[in-house]
Amino acid sequence: xxxxxxxxxxxxxxxxxxxxxxxxxxxxxxxxxxxxxxEEGFQINFFVKEPHIINPSSLCFxxxxxxxxxxxxxxRHPKEDSPTDYIKILIDSDNDGVAExxxxxxxxxxxxxxxxxxxDELWVANAPELTVLRxxxxxxxxxxxxxxxxxxNNLRHSVHGLNWGPDGWLYFTMGNTWVKPNAxxxxxxxxxxxxxxxxxxxxxxxxxxETYPKSFxxxxxxxxxxxxxxxxxxxxxxxLFARGMRNPWDMxxxxxxxxxxxxxxxxxxxxxxxxxxxxGHY
Length: 282
What we know:
Shape: globular
Radius of gyration: 22 Å
Strand order of the largest sheet: 5-6-7-8-11
Order of helices and strands: HEEEEEEEEEEHEEEEEEE
Largest sheet: 5 strands, antiparallel
Number of strands: 17
Strand content: 25-35%
């Protein structure tokens, strides 16, 4: 028994040293312009890269087919003096697979992590807020910034996965980050946050990029319970759809109109894909 343990111990040490050597070699040989190998018949290239986009965290397309990318220095460990995030429009005018035109659609945002279009409104998950952006004059620059919900704490395990369902409701995933006492009541209730806050949601105040409030909430590891929520257009009638997750990251619908979602569990067993249903507890 002692001999077997000794052999195992030596093997573990050898593996550990080998992994360290491999990591050092990879660091020394990394090519920032290298691209993954793809199967025959496929092609991969940079559509845009730094310095035009830094830390891209989400993307979506509008009704004209224009690509919007949320990015910026807030991801992944923002500080109180970190510059704000932004959303850019990337346009490939000559169809060569490279964006020639880059426009800034919105800026001054906190922690952009998800986006979804609904008509002329771009819904943005940017903890601690859920925000709606509107371009009222058609110049590809957002004029109105409306905070729908706030108090959703920081970017760690917060709101992401924005998806409009065929039933007309907005579905979004919410990780197990500890929310503020002024967060919407259905979210507070899921996490057991006791509060007498009477804030009426959705909020209605309209901001501009100059007046949009910058918020900073230090990262913390106080974990509660994650879930999936849904609301009607405008942010009305917010309700809990399913619960019991740790950090559900995103969701989509299959051809049979079934929701599929991912959950980020710590360590083993790792990530999981599940099928959330209304009132489900996972």
